User: Fold these one by one.
Assistant:
Number 1:
Amino acid sequence: MERSFESAGALVGRTAGPVSEHLGSFVDLLIRQQFVAAVVYVKAMHAAAFDRWLAQHDVDAAELSEAHIQRFLRRRRRHRGPIRPETRRREEYNVRHVLSFLRSRGICAQAIARSTPIEDLVATFARHLREQQGLASPTIERYTIVARQFLENRFSAGEIDMRAVVATDIIDFICGQVAHLRPPGLKCVVTAMRSFLRYGQYLGDVAGELVAAVPAVATGATTPALPRAISREHAQRAIDSCDVGTAIGLRDRAILLLLARLGLRANEVITLQLGDCDCDWERGTFEFEARADASVCCPCPMTWARHCRVS
């Protein structure tokens, strides 16, 4: 099945367990928080599996706790091959995300506060990323997952002393990810580690040299090297190549104009919805939230496409 917002909604729409009536709202919240479609689909898939398991074991929504999550994770699986460690961690994280959502809605009881040093540090790191750097929720989620994995690998459940971290700790952790991550995923881990260590440097617990110790990820090179950006002339040719006599051509032209004129990222264009736009059709402009911390006003691409103009 295609991993789209619609297929994610269809997944949770077919559930009939004790939390099924709340999963649609859960998916809607993920979309509003600008998670990409593939991530929303995987979270919906794990949420639906958890709901089915709860129904099979006659667990009421009000009784949900972390103990049920642990039992769910230990269930017998019908997979023929072994489950990758990253898949196991992702499933646990997504199911905990569902539990956190249900608790925020008052569906089930709040957890008994049992904070650990690792959870405390990860929580402050996430707050720093959100409040000081203004990162999007999906990025914060990825970075905090890596930070938690590193801390658990280095300190287990003991006290945390970031001053005791040395370069070999970082290199060993990165090398341990190589077995189950492809280069793009490994580059995300490296970026997250640099961000976490810079946060430690900001706190005064990590030396700047330690940030530089994070190894780079080798990627395949092309000969000659691919350009980092296309020229203005090539961008104009791509825009002019759209067939404005068709609906698909108008759509493609509007997307290219968003990319070329505003510098939006592909995932920002993909997640842009009509509800995000405040259109003034007479002036040919609209306003929308391009990022969580920046409002953009620009000539309306639908007007550009309809009149085949480029400002």
Number 2:
Amino acid sequence: MNPIIERARPEIRALTPYQHAAWEPSLTRMHANELPWRVPGDGSEAGLNRYPEPQPPALVNGLAALYGVRPEQLLVGRGSDEAIDLLARIFCQASVDNVIVCPPTFGMYGVAARIQGAKVISVPLRAPDFGLDVDGILAAADVYTKLVFVCSPNNPTANAVPVGVLRDLAKRLSPRALLVVDEAYIEFSRQPSLCADLDALPNLAVLRTLSKAHGLAGARCGALIAAPEIITLARKVIPPYAITEQTVEVVAPLLEPQAVERMRARVDQLLAGRARLADALRANRFCTRVWASDTNFLLAEFTDADEVLRRVRGAGLIIRDVRQAALPASLRITVGTSEENERLLESIK
């Protein structure tokens, strides 16, 4: 058995999951207490009066093929957020266990841990270029550390952690803790995904999402990718009908090869716009630094961030104020269309 499973909560390992209504599409459904009629305006293929299939094979198989993993290594969820929450509930015992996060980073890791009652240990990224402090993580990890979250490429700093560093960290954490690598922005980076390392690193979990490069933020569809034993536990904990029928019918066709090629072409277009926007910001009198980016956004430092925010809002745009101790004068700018990027630049001339 995968030794990381021994680190999961014993009550989750012993849990008998909810037994949802059997899924047998060839039979007329009179077993799930559903209404037999569609509502007016329901244009879905399956009918919104029917419960959706738990872990729909169209999505499981499509996402597994997209990410180069086996279906038993993948759980479909409502974006990466649900996977983060599931892992905290599976592994962390309230008031006992802890997770490690590496700020500045995505805030949901700490939120999910605190909701579960776990302690959050911060090991900040190293200044000035936000490198991962591997030695600091290993020193902070103790017998109660269950999860180590690393966002790569990172939000909001936009940089990726070298794959070799992450592989080494997973090996050195094993079997004490699960390394969770959030690859929400990996399609915008030249760095390869760690999905190919799952068999070699049983204490690795990878988070992927369709919200960014695929342009499906409103569909709420992502994946937890990990050892089959971890996926089995996650299937016990996730609600039985988490993925809506609309999501299945909209997303499944967009996992076909032609749709994926269109996605990659849009990513190339966005990366060209990112380069032009970065160059223009570096020439702006308010801007003192633009960090290199492996994402669909830029982190930029300004002499007067408040004035920049005011001017941008006056142009009918909104960007993210990410100022904090490690980023005292920085704003995060999502790369938009050519027109949107030009409007932003014009507003801060």
Number 3:
Amino acid sequence: MKRSLLNLHLAVFLAGFTGVLGRLISLNEALLVWYRLLITVTTLLILFLLRRAVPKISLKGLLQIFLVGTVVALHWVAFYGSIKYSNVSIALVCFSTVGFFSAVLEPVVFKKRISIIEVLLGGLAIAGVYFIFHFDTRYKKGIAFGIVSAFLAALFTILNKKVLEKQEPATVTFYELMGGFFMLTLLLPAYLRLTHLPYSLPSAHDWLWLIILSWLCTVYAFFLSLSALKNVSAFTVNLSYNLEPVYGILLAFLIYRENEDLSNSFYIGLSLIIIAVVWQMSRVYRSRPVMLK
């Protein structure tokens, strides 16, 4: 049990580290995600081939998963765009508004009643972002990308729920990332043209950070999460991933000293978001009918 919890929190820490790596890599957001997907999908394919266990799936299932993979790829592009146009801390604070979008989108997709308290808590997180935006407009483009990133992350989680009802997690992850890679390959020229971003090859340092991002923060973190799920409840896993923005912001403060560039409005907005997240976590914890594993 202790080892599973350590694996889980290492996976969450690695997820929080992706923002720091996004700032280190000099490529624009679209190319960064394209190379991340290229390395990750290639690595997973090699691992499956070595084990002679390439997941098999129907054409209908494949198309559904590819659609969700497209959402994943676009979420990553928006997330790294937020970092490029602002900084890691702003991007992660915006990402924390995913709860608001989940509270609105999930009832629509699953045809269930909207939870007023979840909408209000999500609205509190949105108020935190607005507070930062209203009093510090330097990062308005980065905040816009961050809000889009949170919306797509919420949409991905909801769509993924439906897909996972029929498929194994390893199969879903592999084909989602493959679908994201194929769709981003098709969309990349248009995105670069519309945003007037240049096409450039990764530098030697970029390749190093891309490999770390793909191998450690994507492939290894995924297997750590799966390993933890063998002995830890899915609820505990989801609850723990609320720490991802916290880890990322602390790392950004430590490595880039971003705290020196942020105004008081950032901390007020961050406090509102933390209140919303902690409140929601406590609500879910209290409503749990059985003891956590």
